[in-house]
TrEMBL record:
Name the record gives this protein: ethanolamine-phosphate cytidylyltransferase
Pfam families: CTP_transf_like
Pathway involvement of the protein, from the record: Phospholipid metabolism; phosphatidylethanolamine biosynthesis; phosphatidylethanolamine from ethanolamine: step 2/3; Lipid metabolism
Gene for this chain: Pcyt2
Lineage: Eukaryota, Metazoa, Chordata, Craniata, Vertebrata
InterPro entries associated with the record: CCT (IPR041723), Cyt_trans-like (IPR004821), Ect1/PCYT2 (IPR044608), Rossmann-like_a/b/a_fold (IPR014729)
Domain Cytidyltransferase-like: 1-115, 183-273
Amino acid sequence: YGHSNQLRQARAMGDYLIVGVHTDEEIAKHKGPPVFTQEERYKMVQAIKWVDEIAPGAPYVTTLETLDKYNCDFCVHGDDITLTIDGKDTYEEVKTAGRYRECKRTQGVSTTDLVGRMLLMTKAHHSNIDEDLDYRKHTDNFGKGPKGRSPWTGVSQFLQTSQKIIQFASGKEPQPGDTIIYVAGAFDLFHIGHVDFLEKVHQLAERPYIIAGLHFDQEVNRYKGKNYPIMNIHERTLSVLACRYVSEVVIGAPYAVTSDLLDHFRVTLVCHGMTEVVPDKDGSDPYEEPKRRGIFQLVDSGSNLTTDLIVQRIIKNRLEFEARNQKKEAKELAVLEAMKKLEEEKH
């Protein structure tokens, strides 16, 4: 949702947003192993509602040639630094030409921090649990090189505001003739499996209005165990709202799909993917009511990617990721040092 927020801000600066997505090879060269494959990433970015078009295989260094090729007036990046493998600013050329704009980085989230939560089996990131010492110790060494910490890679806490939700929400009410479809789950680490599922659900009706029910952290933890969900309820809300197939999100939906909920939202269809449905606390089927009404449907997304698999990918590459983050941090700190020196020389 940090990436989505950047795309939202970029889209607001113009009329048409083209998003360049790097290949696996480019990322591995400049940053370290990517978590998702390029095909997965192309599809993920395309599913974000502010994106008009993607440019697959975009070069890591943005040049005027690339901007002209896609007929772009300017490019947008967050206010953090991106450096090439040899420490150069990747936006130098377009900045000099005056075809660069900047947007604010989303406070409180980074890929680095999420990777950290996956590697650490604590629950401190859940929305109602006091931060535990393990996690604090971990965030210190995860986003920190030997010389202190970088404000970009470092970890800070995400604070949800109503404004953020408004910016991400569609604000559209269901219209007469819309098919109101309800789906529920954790939607943790919003990924291509979720996108494929929502896209399939979206295709079930002429005019779909999809409401996604998100379970609270404690509920997800009850049926998923370990340190799930990796993202807390606030973070999951924004991630799901950024998807172009979703019209509305219920924040903290009840685990059992009750007749109250179905009547309140005037739901025509309830869908679930092929993942296992864990019984409710009392052992009952959470989809009993929609099944009784004959409005329940299983939908096969055709994707086998799950949140578990992503975590496994991370753990497999754990050492590479830790090395990557420390290198990234060291590069950023070096730039900060240089910037400070320049400032001092000016005075």
